[in-house]
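Narrative summary of target 7.
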Amino acid sequence: MTDQPAKILIVEDEAIISKAYADELRDEGYIALVAANGQAGLELAIREKPDLILLDILMPIMNGLVMMDKLRATDLYGKNVPIILLTNLSASEEEIMKAVTKNEPAYYLVKSDWNLSQVVAKIKERLARKEQFE
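Modeled conformation, tokenized:
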């Protein structure tokens, strides 16, 4: 286990939301990386290997579910990095649950049900669980 801060990749097409998450995570001592669509997020994830990915589902160019499938198919890192999906539930819940189950470790949160500090708490919880297995 290293003493450097965890790296969190935020893949979100709404700039105001990604900035809010990035600012909050940096305030908490994390390194925050930001991508505005799934394609950019996939490239950044493969290159930077973040400790956790916060992933919006509905985005231009490549949506979050496609990005997650492609990342899971890359290598051991891609298969195992924790992903928290953020959704407005515009995608069907059944489709999301299928993707989450197939792509564990993945979790999904409905944006309207979670405020910023609750999402950050969930990120901390996931990172702590990941450290137990290292």
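Residues 82 and 105 are 5 Å apart (CA to CA).
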